């Protein structure tokens, strides 16, 4: 059950920071939501998780009422179809689900992958098929909810382009995968980079499938995670629309230092 106040629903993305350090910061400052990545360092997916550590983290989250999520790497190409590499992507995603389940994570952020301006249909089909299989795998494990993140638009002349960066590219995934364990991580600063904008995504998809709203600012020109107020996103309008539409899950700050996040939480808490 989520805490009552808007302030309590605002969390932070810890990235690759050792999870114990992130949880200590969360507890000492009254954060109740956070997610982390398990690709590097102390959080390494393969080597970092014996039973003693897992049990200690679960006890910490229960004691401090911290809702935890796992954020997979967007650098891993979920749209991969090359032999051997494709199997590795499947193994990576399943291993993340396994870890999320062991830790008691409530959600796991996933992505649609990327392409190189060629074989776009094949890449999209591979990504959709892979996420459908992963959703079935998560259903068998029984707890963690997959949240597809809308990713950022790259310049037209860039060689690499993320899939799922606009409404048209997100739509096939949400249309095909109807499981309650497949939802949406709505990244507002990414939506601000495409013509439909922040409101355009909500016009099409609403709020019912959103499990996390990811927050950072930018000027609408290119991918950069700025502090609120440094860019051109109207966070007041965003919060009024989301809260007015009945959004009741958490917000995730993905920018700045710890001090920046503390100050931004105070700002965001005034907007509901």
CATH homology group: Divalent-metal-dependent TIM barrel enzymes
Helix content: 40-55%
- Biggest pleated sheet: 8 strands, parallel, barrel
List low-confidence stretches: none
CATH topology: TIM Barrel
- Specify the oligomeric state: single chain
Describe the protein in words.
It is a single chain. Helix 3 (85-103) runs parallel beside helix 4 (120-141). The protein has a single domain (7-268), classed as Alpha-Beta Barrel (TIM Barrel). With 272 residues, the chain is an alpha/beta fold. The radius of gyration is 18 Å and the shape is globular. It has helices at residues 19-29, 51-64, 85-103, 120-141, 167-176, 188-191, 197-205, 235-244, 258-268, and strands spanning 10-13, 33-36, 67-71, 107-110, 114-115, 145-149, 161-162, 182-187, 210-215, 250-253. The strands form two sheets. The chain has an eight-stranded parallel beta barrel with strand order 1-2-3-4-6-8-9-10. The chain has a two-stranded antiparallel ribbon with strand order 5-7. The protein has nine helices and ten strands. Strand 1 (10-13), helix 1 and strand 2 form a beta-alpha-beta unit.
Sum this structure up briefly.
The protein is an alpha/beta fold. Helix content is 40%, strand content 15%.
Secondary structure: elements and pairs:
Elements (H helix, E strand, L loop, with lengths): L9 E4 L5 H11 L3 E4 L14 H14 L2 E5 L13 H19 L3 E4 L3 E2 L4 H22 L3 E5 L11 E2 L4 H10 L5 E6 H4 L5 H9 L4 E6 L19 H10 L5 E4 L4 H11 L4
Parallel strand pairs: 1-2, 1-10, 2-3, 3-4, 4-6, 6-8, 8-9, 9-10
Antiparallel strand pairs: 5-7
Helix pairs in contact: 1-2, 3-4
């Amino acid at each position: 059950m989520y805490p009552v106040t808007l302030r309590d629903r605002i969390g932070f993305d810890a990235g690759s920071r050792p999870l114990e350090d992130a949880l200590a910061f969360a507890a000492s400052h009254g954060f109740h939501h956070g997610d982390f990545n398990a690709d590097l360092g102390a959080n390494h997916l393969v080597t970092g998780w014996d039973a003693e550590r897992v049990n200690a983290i679960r006890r910490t989250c229960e004691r401090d009422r911290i809702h935890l999520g796992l954020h997979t790497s967007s650098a891993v190409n979920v749209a991969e179809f090359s032999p051997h590499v494709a199997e590795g992507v499947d193994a990576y995603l399943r291993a993340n689900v396994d870890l999320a389940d062991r830790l008691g994570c409530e959600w796991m952020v996933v992505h649609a992958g990327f392409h190189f301006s060629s074989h776009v249909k094949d890449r999209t089909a591979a990504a959709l098929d892979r996420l459908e299989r992963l959703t079935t795998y998560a259903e068998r494990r029984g707890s963690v909810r997959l949240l597809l993140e809308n990713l950022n638009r790259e310049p037209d002349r860039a060689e690499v382009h993320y899939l799922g960066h606009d409404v048209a590219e997100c739509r096939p995934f949400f249309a095909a995968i109807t499981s309650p364990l497949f939802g949406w991580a709505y990244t507002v600063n990414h939506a601000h980079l495409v013509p439909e904008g922040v409101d355009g995504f909500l016009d099409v998809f609403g709020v019912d499938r959103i499990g996390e709203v990811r927050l950072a600012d930018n000027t609408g020109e290119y991918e950069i995670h700025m502090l609120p107020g440094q860019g051109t996103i109207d966070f007041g309008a965003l919060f009024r629309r989301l809260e007015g539409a009945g959004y009741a899950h958490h917000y995730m700050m993905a920018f700045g230092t710890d001090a920046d996040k503390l100050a931004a939480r105070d700002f965001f808490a005034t907007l509901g």
